[in-house]
Amino acid sequence: MSLLTYDTANSVVVAQAVQGNPLAPVTITEYIDFQCGYCAQAKKTVDEVMKKYNGQVNLVVKHMPLEFHAGALPAARYFEALYQRNPVIAWNFFNLVFREQAALENGEVGVQYLINKLNLSQEELEQLSQDLTNPLIAEKIYADIAEGDAMGIDQVPFFLINGHKVENYEQPEDFNKIIDALLLEKSEANSI
Question: What pTM, to 2 d.p., does this model score?
């Protein structure tokens, strides 16, 4: 199978939000905009793929918020701030955003509405407020954007599987073909 690959070895972002087994042999990297309807549709496909390859695949999220989406950048900031303290809460927020994406049309107010739905404790809310002021959060998001720009990414969602571009994110089969080929390669390499 001939696959277009991207070099992400020189990624400007060191730590990324990871869902699934961090030691999985296959990594799906998704560049997202939380307010993008196509990203919400793609989430269903990714969820199906993650379930099928449980433990063999992980998901890394990178941010490409579009300027005309008022809630995309604030949602990315909140996600990253939540992830620093509690990845479980961050992924709950991730899922909630895509379930109730229309709230993001109200920008920061919409993001706050979604945060309130997480039922965080007063202590967690205070910590979140403090974490949002950490300049590393914004640096991380802008580094994701710079990385995507350097690779020529001009639309979201954009998927890489171990550096191989997924041409059609709407069908799990397109993910499965790449993942199956990568797992077969790994299996064959381990049997030598």
Answer: 0.87
